[in-house]
Design a protein that fits this description.
Order of helices and strands: EHEEEHHEHEHEHHHHHEE
Shape: elongated
CATH superfamily of the largest domain: SPOUT methyltransferase, trefoil knot domain
Radius of gyration: 23 Å
Number of domains: 2
Largest sheet: 5 strands, parallel
Bound molecules: adenine
Helix content: 25-40%
Strand order of the largest sheet: 2-1-6-5-7
CATH architecture of the largest domain: 3-Layer(aba) Sandwich
Structural class: alpha/beta
Number of strands: 9
Distance between the termini: 45 Å
């Protein structure tokens, strides 16, 4: 996979050379290039931002600098596009807080670069997005700073036929997109075939697959540590019972911490024992998804 990252702090990504990510670069699975956005500026101060149109605090990243950089990396010629940017248009944008602006990779040409901007006001980046993007051939990340980037940048490249994604990594605001890009990169690349030493460890993880549950608790040796034991069933050697125990623990754990994930399960995929466990926790398991009683 080819990965380009544009940032005003490209040195931030030197940390990528360690661990499994570093190994994947060494083995040629990943071809990572970082670019300094200021290389596309022309003024003595190398400025990449300006004050917000309409007033307000902070600075906004300029479209001209970003576009010169992205045109180069995407090998596109600059064009004028018919875009009114009227009030109706921008209200349409703010209404869509779902993933509707982020297309599915299956609809795109996987060989074309996908342009990704981290943005705290975008749809949430999920394991599903990571899985989908792990199949792409080329990702180009643009790290915003300050109060963000001019909203015309993603609109312009979408109008040019580029697959543009904007993702938030959580409901909090960071100083810039660098940390968010690192998070997304790690989530995406570890799903690539050949990245993990033991690919089985991915299969049972939390948030994996259509029937995502939080993972059951994990224990290692010693069986008794500072007076604390592990559940007997785990040392019984009965794999059927171990699997059932772990599944029930995952269900109970998810019910307690993330009931929203239970409510998204597909009832058809639940076995009899799953249903029994869910019902004992106060869920009605009929129809397409479980429903918490007395909610
Ligand atoms: N930039 C600043 N905060 C962010 C967030 N929560 N997610 C993605 N990008 C960001």
């Amino acid at each position: 996979m080819k990965i380009d990252i544009v940032s005003v702090f490209p040195e931030y990504f030197e940390a990528l050379n360690v661990g499994l990510f570093g190994k994947a670069i060494e083995h040629g699975l990943l071809d990572v290039k970082t670019h300094d956005l200021r290389d596309w500026t022309h003024d003595v101060h190398h400025s990449v931002d300006d004050t917000p149109v309409g007033g307000g605090a902070g600075m906004v990243m300029k479209p001209e600098v970003w576009a010169e950089c992205l045109d180069d990396l995407l090998e596109l010629e600059p064009v004028e596009i018919a875009d009114t940017n009227d009030v109706a248009d921008s209200s349409k944008q703010s209404e869509s807080d779902d993933d509707s602006e982020n297309p599915d990779l299956s609809e795109a040409n996987p060989a074309k670069p996908i342009l990704i901007f981290p943005n705290p006001s975008a749809p949430l980046f999920t394991q599903r997005d990571a899985t989908e993007l792990s199949r792409a051939d080329h990702l180009l990340f643009g790290c915003g700073r300050y109060e963000g980037y001019d909203a015309r940048i993603p609109r312009y490249y979408r109008a040019q036929g580029v697959d543009v994604r904007e993702y938030s990594i959580g409901d909090y605001v960071l100083n810039g997109g660098e940390v968010a890009v690192s998070v997304m990169l790690e989530a995406i690349t570890r799903l690539m075939p050949g990245f993990m030493g033991n690919p089985d460890s991915i299969v049972e993880e939390s948030y994996t697959g259509q029937n995502a549950l939080l993972e059951h608790y994990q224990y290692t040796k010693p069986a008794i540590w500072r007076g604390m034991g592990v559940p007997d069933v785990l040392t019984s050697g009965d794999h059927g019972n171990v699997n059932r125990f772990r599944r029930d623990e995952a269900i109970a754990h998810t019910d307690r911490l993330r009931p929203d994930l239970i409510a998204q399960l597909d009832c058809k995929s639940l076995d009899k024992a799953d249903r029994k466990t869910l019902m004992s926790l106060g869920w009605e398991v009929s129809g397409s998804h479980p429903r918490k009683l007395n909610d």
